[in-house]
Amino acid sequence: MSKNTSHDQNFKNLILDYPHQALEFFAADEAKDIHSDVRITPIRQEQLKERLGERFHELDVPLLVEWPDGRREALLFVLEEETDPRRFSIHRLAHYTLHLSELFETQRVVPVVIFLHSHAHLPAKLSIQSERHTYLEFNYLQTQLDTMPASQFLESNNLVARLNLPNMQWHQTEKIEIYAKAIQGLLTLEQDPEKQLKYLDFVDIYTDFSEDERIVYQQRYPKEDQKMTGLAERLHNEGVQQGIQQGMQQGMQKGEAQALRKLIQLKFGKLPGWTEERISTASLEQLEVWIERILTAESLEELLG
Hints:
50% of the residues lie in helices and 13% in strands. With 305 residues, the protein is of the alpha/beta class.
């Protein structure tokens, strides 16, 4: 696995693309009533940056969960990925949770931490107390991925669970099957080719195949391998064609803009500053209209107005 891999960004993408499945998998205790009709909206939390200092949770994912029929009050889920459990601070998480509670004026906040690697001494809760009273008690939901038996999720219909099979607990002899089950889940549970290719990368990153293991996988699962290879080639070719078309469009647009500038200079003299902005941001169609109109226009204002 690459040392430069941005695990928190990978998990942020996963959660934002599949919020229902993410809550079902990472926050199962609280997600039992979150059915498909429930609205889940990612919210931005950048406004808290100055209040939380350097260790700001800029890659954490707050999700607002709302029941359209009003049968339950809205819940705010805060999901945080921790790659190194030794860096986890329950005080920091409690601080952040309280700030979100204050900002959104709700006490219904569910903090969820996803540990990519487990640790024997992770704090389960935080209690602020004296000998006589407890003044603050803070709990959170946690998932320690590498302690979850992958065998329990091999046929899961939850795409987030299937994609995380490589991050779960399995024996080294099962590595190729684990990868295959993750890819099969991706191909059957996600129909968007671009997302299939996007999360092929996710599975590849966390499986971290050697060249020999890749060859064995290709031999054992030729159908899946051919499908993903064909998908990657097709999307690559579409991207190349799109780039060519965009390049042609941009070239034509640049040429028409230059021609219009020359015509304006010939008819009206030096271009004022305001005309440059109008011309440089105009579409190809608009430039063509102006070039036709310059023959009859009596002023720049009439031409570009």
